[in-house]
Amino acid sequence: MHSLWHLLGLKDTRRSEKALFFSTIGLLIALIGVGLSDPNLLNNTLNGAFDWVLSSFGWWFILLGFVLSVITIFLVFSRYGDLRIGGPDAKPEFDVFSWFAMVFTVGFTSSVIFWGVAEPVSIVNSPPPEPIPIAGASIESLSLAFMYLHNILPGLIAWYLPFALAFGIIVYTRGVEQYKISSMLEPLLDRDEYGWLFWIVDLAALVAIIGGLSTSLGATGQQLAGVLSGVFGFESSLLTYGLFALIGAVFLGDVWLGLRSGIRNAARATVVLVLLFFAILVVVGPTMFILNVGLDSLGIWLDNLIRLSLYSAPTNGGTWPQQWTSFWWAWWCAWGIFVGSFVARVSKGRTVKETFVVLGVAPAILLWVQHAIIGGWALSPGNLEAITTAMNESGYPAAFAAGLLNTPLTGLLGIISVLMLSGYLITSLDSAVFMLASITLGTEEPNARNRAWWGVLLAALGIMTLELPGARALEAFSAVLALPFTVFILAIIYATFVAAREHFVNDLDVETDTLLTRKEAGTKSGLKTDSSAPQDD
Description:
Keywords: Cell membrane, Membrane, Transmembrane, Transmembrane helix, Transport. This is Glycine/betaine ABC transporter. By secondary structure, the chain is an all-alpha fold. The chain contains 19 helices and no strands. It has one domain: Amino acid/polyamine transporter I (Up-down Bundle). The radius of gyration is 24 Å and the shape is globular.
């Protein structure tokens, strides 16, 4: 039995941690099994659950996103903004570029490529119902404004930052015994007394993370398959699986290299490929259309940010905002649990305000540039019709490939796309298994064996999603599996303020004691303190 625990990376773990591992892995294996044996059954089940969640709780995700945005902005620009993750003496572990690269590639995967084309084209063809939320805006600019809303702000502020700051302040700055999502409740509850509740929170978090991973890995995998078949004509699924196997081999090598070498280097390379791809795309154009629609949509987005964030179309009887905004917020929620904890891990030594800049401001600028380029490219008169036709015939994954076929330098852009998407897969898998293993084992440095088991199963999950008949089932994973965890989000945010207040008060006490000690020492040595210095008449 000891050799089995060693093989699984569970040696010297508690019984509750073994139960957490096997419960989550069992759910994951069952999901993969159903998806491979009867993809239509899984597809229909997920779609039914997805419709129920959005119709019944779409309003909740929209409201929660707005509330979390307000709370996060208050936290960052309050007196707690200068708190340093890991404590006042913590030093940054990574240089700024490596830090940003890991945050960006882990936080956004291939959503810019997949949804950056599919969503604005879909909105142009199926616009919001009358009355439209922003009167007078062109549908092209409005579609990009919704894309910015869903994949830039308030998403960054509402979903990634709360988890990152909560995990950083409570786990690293305040200090806890176990490196788990449930540890964020320790400022409010005693783990010994409420151990069962802590275990349920960790299980709900792992399930939600898997839901977000399913959507993200599935979209990336289907997009990669779409480029291979649409651009290069490789229709054989065997080739796609072979490429996944190669990516998996590289990923396993990264697992053994760990956080500092594997994930960091893969993230840096991916960011370089991203910058190269978008630089070429804006040059081949249509450049003027991209620039003009990008600026126009920027004004609509920024001028109507609150209006678009709370848009719920209550009088038309449809579910247009729920199908888009509520889906995105559910995905952000599921993905944000893992991204936030990972960002906190690589942000030790940085202040709350610095983390806000690298996770909120810098990615927002880069994401706007990317979405303006790829969205303007997709909506241009020369590409819109071809992309729409491909989407109608083959679904969302075909949209990006159809645009590439209609663009100069197709082969070069296709090759860069394959490398870029592969980089997103590797960094997502790398960071995901790192955090899944950390949360399961309760340690900041999980062993490679446990990470490898998580990686193999997540890779199988990604392959399974290739068998699903449509992209809509991918959307369902995040919404359905994230809903239970939303119950704990507000408690975690409240616990963050409790921990921040405790740390702030303790720092003031330390500073006061230090000043008093210096004053007493100065008095004993015969030196005058500032208060006893002679005053001018």
